[in-house]
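quick one: pyridoxal-5'-phosphate bound model?
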Amino acid sequence: MRRVYCDHAATTRCHPDVARLIYEYLVNEFGNPSSIHAFGRRARKGVEEARQQVADLIGARATEIFFTSGGTEADNWALRGTVYANRAKGNHIILTPYEHHAVLDQAQALEREGFEVTLLPLEPETGAVTEAALVAAIRPETILISIMYVNNEVGTIQDIKGLCAAAKAANPSVVFHTDAVQAAGVIPVNVKDLGVDLMTVSGHKIYGPKGVGALYVKKGFRFQALQVGGGQERKMRSGTENVPGIIGFGAAAALAARELEARAAHARAMRDRFLAGVLAMDGVTLNGIDPRVSPERRHPGNANVSVEHIEGEAMLLRLDMAGIAASSGSACTSGSLEPSHVLLAMGCSRSIAQGSLRFSFGQENTEDDVDYVIEEFKKSVAFLRKLAPTGL
Ligand SMILES: Cc1ncc(COP(=O)(O)O)c(C=O)c1O
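yep, here:
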């Protein structure tokens, strides 16, 4: 059966060059980077080269990169590491309601521990945060702001530079974190230009391995270690390094930096072809920023659409039977029939949110694939409408 993968925001296929390098570090260069013998030294060299590659991808210094087990750990750490180190300054945290659960659930846990959390209003339909809304929420006791750079469900690209500058003008001691898991390696990202203090990145969204990510921690502010033990990652995150994963992440970051523009152009062409096909249908609507109007404000490969009177999950199952992989909501929450918290936060109705489907296009997709997806999408809609003509 034909298989078409349109779920690159959930994860990507590991690039074969990256996979080969990972194999090398699993089987041949398997030393512990903390060992002083040659095996250890070679592993250390590999890890430090990878650190530089990840740093280069986001315009950081290598000493500001701390490897983690992925985006989730980096998000969790960004929040907890900041608020406990800066508790003397205040107890107030600001977020958007459409953050990844790695941020939202950590903030909820901190709320139970006595911190106060404000969720910013989002602009309806686009999901953008305005500087005015952010500044209005900032107080003298605000210690942390966390705003996602590129949203994983609807692809909205926030103006992180503007928001960060406005936040620092309102309260210079505030720490600004951005979850850039869907941004780094997809759009140009430079931490110095953005002005952020903390940034989360992950390997498996950019043709690297799963289970590895990093937190950028700008030099010079109070931040707490994640775990203690052997003192790895400059005593900030103890535990023997995931050397093959880190090497793979570094290689994937270097490839992404080199191919950034070509990859974005390809994903954009596939996404736009898909949208032209499905938005011409009756009852199919686009969620989020219209990339035909403002392409620079949306992830190049992201399409999020709703089909009137049809559940997204039902569509997914039909498409899966045709070998097509897409997603409803984020992969981490699929399996639950709760409508997407992102679309609800953007003011969509429950039925639009429940009918939503995310297609995220990537390097392996061809025009022929996209035409097949459009055709199967139309067949699935026709089938499900016949089955439940009265709708939801
Ligand atoms: C925006 C965002 N943040 C965080 C994560 C979690 O990253 P990881 O899967 O590396 O833990 C994801 C992955 O779905 C994501 O899309």
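Residues 4-12+260-387 form a domain with the Aspartate Aminotransferase, domain 1 fold (CATH 3.90.1150.10).
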